Amino acid sequence: MSDLLYYFDQLILPYQPEQIFIYEGDNDTNGGKTSEQILKDASLLLNKIRSRVSSKVEVLFISAKPSLARAQLKDQYLKFNADLKAWTEKQQNVKFVDVWTPMMDKKGEVMRDLFIEDQLHMNEKGYLIWKKVIGRYVR
């Protein structure tokens, strides 16, 4: 989240978007940041978007995804996702997009066949899940 905030002028501002999908928090959590620290940056980012892009642009925050490589951080990711969802519900024209749940099996475990060899980055099957979930929100 902090990197997107830092590179806002290059990554968001030039495009004057009507919708912005933001996937941040995964690496921040892995890097030791708390959900409170990440949401502080999200608030700063949202304020920049509102003041420099448009007060009416729809902003959609995508949940952190599960992964086998970072399974030891599951509780931190679940907390971040819950905190992010609660935070988005308090914002105007902001939505929470849950990609965590559809990546889990019926036993509540992350599906093992959604990742490339590093067990962190998704393969085609993982991205198809994201396409289906996120596609519901694309205008």
How are the secondary structure elements laid out?
Layout lengths: L1 H5 L1 H4 L7 E4 L3 H5 L4 H18 L5 E5 L11 H16 L4 E4 L26 H12 L4
Helix pairs in contact: 4-5
Can you offer a commentary on this structure?
- With 139 residues, this protein is mostly helical.
- The chain has one domain (2-135): 3-Layer(aba) Sandwich (Rossmann fold).
- It has helices spanning 2-6, 8-11, 26-30, 35-52, 74-89, 124-135; strands spanning 19-22, 58-62, 94-97.
- The protein has a three-stranded parallel beta sheet with strand order 1-2-3.
- Strand 2, helix 5 (74-89) and strand 3 (94-97) form a beta-alpha-beta unit.
- The chain starts with a helix and ends with a helix.
- The mean pLDDT is 97.
Instruction: Summarize model confidence as the mean pLDDT.
Output: 97
CATH topology: Rossmann fold
CATH top level class name: Alpha Beta
Unreliable spans: none
Q: Indicate the proportion of strand residues.
A: 5-15%
Order of helices and strands: HHEHHEHEH
The helix count comes to: 6
Structural class category: mainly alpha
User: Strand order within the widest sheet?
Assistant: 1-2-3
Architecture in CATH? 3-Layer(aba) Sandwich
| Total number of distinct structural domains | 1
> What would CATH call the homologous superfamily?
SGNH hydrolase
Helix content bin: 40-55%
* General shape: globular
- How many strands? 3
C-alpha-based Rg, rounded: 15 Å
- Straight-line distance between termini: 24 Å
The main β sheet shows up as:
3 strands, parallel
